[in-house]
Design goal:
single chain; 130 residues; mainly alpha; two-stranded antiparallel sheet; 58% helix; DUF1366 domain-containing protein
Length: 130
């Protein structure tokens, strides 16, 4: 007797997230995975640049120049994450989420990180016991 296992209906590839008071759906395909990788690399680079602000060369810069540098890095992070949210959650979703987070780039990056964490765990649904 053959054992029939249907993997198709067990894969979890469509996710639903509650973000900024709305239900937002995302299909995790190769294009999405690559886009997440691009955003993740951009955000990581900007965060590393911000960490460099503690180094001596930045301490010698005038405070206004340091703030301009930080402002530019925050803009890089937003410019990576907001279009991702627009693409996968609908037009203007990125700005909507950003504003819902009280215009906090760190909160926006945290939301992106949480989404990435869930998507990184693509798995087979467990069978429910009856």
């Amino acid at each position: 007797m053959a054992i029939n296992i249907n993997i198709d209906n067990q894969l979890e590839l469509v996710y639903s997230f509650r973000i900024a008071g709305k239900e937002r759906k995302l299909t995790y395909d190769d294009e999405c995975a690559l886009e997440i990788q691009r955003v993740e690399l951009t955000v990581t680079k900007s965060l590393q640049n911000l960490d460099k602000m503690d180094e001596e060369e930045f301490n010698e810069m005038p405070v206004d120049d340091q703030l301009d540098f930080a402002r530019d890095e925050y803009a890089e992070i937003r410019d990576a994450i907001i279009p991702f949210f627009d693409k996968y959650f609908g037009d203007n979703a990125g700005q909507e989420i950003y504003e819902y987070c009280h215009n906090s780039t760190r909160a926006l990056a945290t939301i992106f990180g949480e989404i990435n964490k869930y998507l990184d765990q693509t798995k087979i649904k467990s069978k429910s016991k009856k």
